[in-house]
Amino acid sequence: MRVLVVEDERKTAAFIRSALEAEHIAVDVCHNGPDALTAATGVSFDAVVLDIMLPGQDGLSVLRQLRQRRNRTPVLLLSARGEVNDRVEGLNIGADDYLAKPFVLAELVARLRALVRRGNEPKPQLLRVADLTLDTLTRQARRGETAFDLAAREYRLLEFLMRSAGRVCGRMTILEKVWDYNFDPGTNIVDVYIRRLREKIDADFEHKLLHTVRGEGYVLKEGK
Q1: Where are the alpha helices (H) located in 93-178, listed in sequence order?
Q2: End-to-end CA distance of the chain
Q3: Distance CA 104, CA 159 (A)
């Protein structure tokens, strides 16, 4: 397991490196945005720990460019506790998880292992609901002949809904399965991602697949 840590506070970066290396995880460290983008696109990492506030180029800009280049490496954002809007934006543009500073190093290690483990789980390659398909090997989604590009979290949400096709999924269940949260983070992040997913898989099609069950949650199925 190899992780890229991007943190401009050198003491914090050193603490993270020590904690990860104690778990026999190889660690590369960058202290600014441009170096992080170069490293992340030039080397294959299992995960990236990315601080939002960075010199040269902020973490959200780095993340956005990685996703635009179709780099799907799992990204764990680090942010100051008050940066709620930045965390939401980060999740919207493709971050896989976040931790607010100050954090417990053991939790950071556990979250990284969970991110990498999810990527390594063997699962059926092709999922199908009506004319919607999702190739879990290439992460390519299609509805009929129309292909969709999915950000990392959009992919996880669609995969979960397709594997749960026909069952109503509540917001807390989605937070637990897609974001690994066992608590409500106090944002409307699930609704934001449902809306983004609808724009891709339903907006241009007569028959809708992603339905809201008022007071309960969401369900992916054919028909009303």
Answers
A1: 105-120, 152-163, 171-178
A2: 44
A3: 30
pTM, full prediction: 0.57
Token pair of 17 as six digits: 């490196």
Please say whether the dihedral angle defined by the alpha carbons of residues 178, 2, 108 and 67, taken in this order, is positive or negative.
negative
Answer with the one of 74, 103, 120 that is the final residue of a domain. 120
Among candidate residues 75, 29, 25, 27, the one with its CA nearest the CA of residue 52 = 75
User: Do residue 100 and residue 152 come from a single domain?
Assistant: no
pLDDT in tens, 117-171: 876 555 557 899 999 999 887 888 999 999 998 888 899 899 999 988 998 999 8
User: In angstroms, what CA-CA distances link 185 with 97, 99, 175, 188, 219?
Assistant: 12, 11, 9, 9, 22
What domain range is 216 assigned to? 126-220
CA 22 from centre of chain: 26
